[in-house]
Amino acid sequence: MKTLMLAPATCLLGLLLVAPRAHAQAAWPDRTRVLPDKLRQVPVGLVLWHTPNPAYPEPNPSQPGQYVWRHSTAVRADVADLQVVECGSFIWYNESGWQANVRLSPAEFAAQFGCLQGKLAKGRTYTYPRNYRYAPGQQLYGGDALWYILATNSRGQLFKGIGLMETEAQPLSNAVRTR
Fold this sequence. Notes:
By secondary structure, this protein is of the alpha+beta class. It has three helices and eleven strands; from the N terminus they run αββββββαβββββα. Strands 5, 6, 7, 10 and 11 form a five-stranded antiparallel sheet that branches. A hairpin with a 7-residue loop joins strand 2 (57-59) and strand 3. The radius of gyration is 18 Å and the shape is globular. The relative contact order is 0.23.
């Protein structure tokens, strides 16, 4: 039974170790671990998710000839009332692995998630309703985004929430036809 449980983890680890280190070195220097350093050894205290997930490119009606991946991102503090310290994402769209991408300050988080002063009330859901990805021209490429939120409780203990967002390269109608 142990061998069966270790096999998927060993395969994932093998894939991660063969990725070149060029661009992702600062965000993800330890290729033996799945998470970027910033997110390791921080206890989970928030639930973070994206809807719909995966997201598929659609023509952007406000920019003819361009595409948009429409999705929202939501978060809920589960351990206590929390104060947001940072929100952001890492992206993975090629063999380089995780690369730092978006970083929101507490004030930017508060504006995007409708969360007064970045204070998360325990059990309440806050949503970034238009957390869209845009593609200039016809450049359609898939990739994954690992969104994270770091927040502290009243004693200063740091907690994290993470959520993986899949964005696909083909519009949904094409993706369904090719499967």
